[in-house]
Amino acid sequence: MKKLVSIVIPAYNVGTEIEECLRSIQQQTYLEWEALVVNDGSKDNTAAIVEKLAAEDSRIRLINQSNAGVSSARNTGIKEAVGGYLAFLDGDDMWEPDFLDEMITAKEQDDVAMVYCGYSHLYAGGMKRKFTYPYVSGHILLDVINKKTQVHIGAILVDKSIIDSYNLHFTEGCLVAQDQEFIKNLVSLVKVKAVPKELMIYRIRTGSAIRAKWNWQKHIHGVYAFRRSAKFILEQELGHYNKTQLAYDLAAREAFNLYKLIWRMIKNGYEKEAIELMDDQENMLTMEKLDVTRLKFSHRLKCRAVKSKNKFLWWLLRYV
């Protein structure tokens, strides 16, 4: 018997895209699925469009909630899901028609808990460009941490039992990188199979977010997300990793992430805030774990400049 796939779809003001998203699911060659659209307090016609499609196809289900953010919407979907397999797709993205078939075939052939594939960027003018990192299989946590590969939340399929067993969820209130926190936690636990095809379509939106001033208070959430993930990972019994080496690699990457954030703060004129961050005791300890010998020369130079707290040196290197 074919397993049911629960597809969790957070949706907020995607009235112009949600039908195309759901049509791409309806066009799947694998038919055993449920689409759980969690309308996160949309102010446009998102809910009305989903209601219309759900009336035509009982596999589509609309769940309404007050606006609480994408993490909350995904968590709601996970709680409502009844399928043996779980997948995610944002309300403005799409899948190729053979996404589910290809992913399930690869998963069941290799008997792994999770599979992932590549994806394409879809631009406003209709141009599509493949976007892939090297495909790696097995225990891929270190590859993900060190960005030797990349796993998109809309390009995975996983046993729901894993999510339930470890109570995996998305951190609510986290403004960036909540999906990558979830993925790191997940791949630390399971063996993974890569499907070397671009089966997911990620829509590139243009608009005010691109023109807006860079906001360090938003992007620091990425540092916090990595810090939480590292803590979760090191609390697990992971016999397939050397725990000492893993702790070192996690600490080094967290330190590099923090350094990059602080350097970008300096470049964007947040010098006072950057110094306050560096003076925080936990951040001081984190920065000490940065292995500068593993960095490129330009990063070594900027890292030493950051640690110096020398504003004149910061000014000299600002445009490097």
Structure in words:
The chain is built from 14 helices and 9 strands. It is α/β, with parallel strands linked by helices. The chain has 2 domains: about 5-205, Spore Coat Polysaccharide Biosynthesis Protein SpsA, Chain A, CATH 3.90.550; about 210-315, no CATH class. Strands 1, 2, 3, 4, 5, 6, 7, 8 and 9 form a 9-stranded mixed sheet that branches. Helix 2 (about 45-55) links the parallel strand 2 (about 35-40) and strand 3. Helix 7 runs parallel beside helix 9, helix 9 (about 215-235) runs antiparallel to helix 10 (about 245-265) and helix 10 packs antiparallel against helix 11 (about 270-280).
What layout of secondary structure does this protein have?
Elements: E1 5-11, H1 18-26, E2 33-40, H2 46-56, E3 60-65, H3 70-80, E4 85-88, E5 94-95, H4 99-110, E6 114-122, E7 128-131, H5 141-145, E8 156-159, H6 160-165, H7 178-189, E9 192-203, H8 208-211, H9 216-235, H10 243-267, H11 271-279, H12 281-287, H13 297-308, H14 311-317
Parallel strand pairs: 1-2, 1-4, 2-3, 6-9
Antiparallel strand pairs: 4-8, 5-9, 6-7, 6-8
InterPro entries: Glyco_trans_2-like, Nucleotide-diphossugar_trans
GO molecular function: hexosyltransferase activity
Domain Glycosyltransferase 2-like: 6-121
**Global shape:** globular
Task: Give the helix tally.
Answer: 14
Quick one: biggest sheet?
A: 9 strands, mixed
Provide the β-strand percentage band.
Answer: 15-25%
Low-confidence parts, pLDDT < 50 over ≥5 residues? none
The total count of strands amounts to 9
| Helix/strand order | EHEHEHEEHEEHEHHEHHHHHHH
Domain module tally = 2
Average pLDDT score: 94
Structural class of the helices, strands and pairings? Answer: alpha/beta
- The rounded Rg comes to 21 Å
The name of the CATH superfamily of the largest domain reads Spore Coat Polysaccharide Biosynthesis Protein SpsA, Chain A
Using the coordinates above, name the CATH class of the largest domain. Alpha Beta
Distance between the termini: 59 Å
Briefly note the CATH topology name of the largest domain. Answer: Spore Coat Polysaccharide Biosynthesis Protein SpsA, Chain A
Name the CATH architecture of the largest domain.
Alpha-Beta Complex
What portion of residues is helical?
40-55%
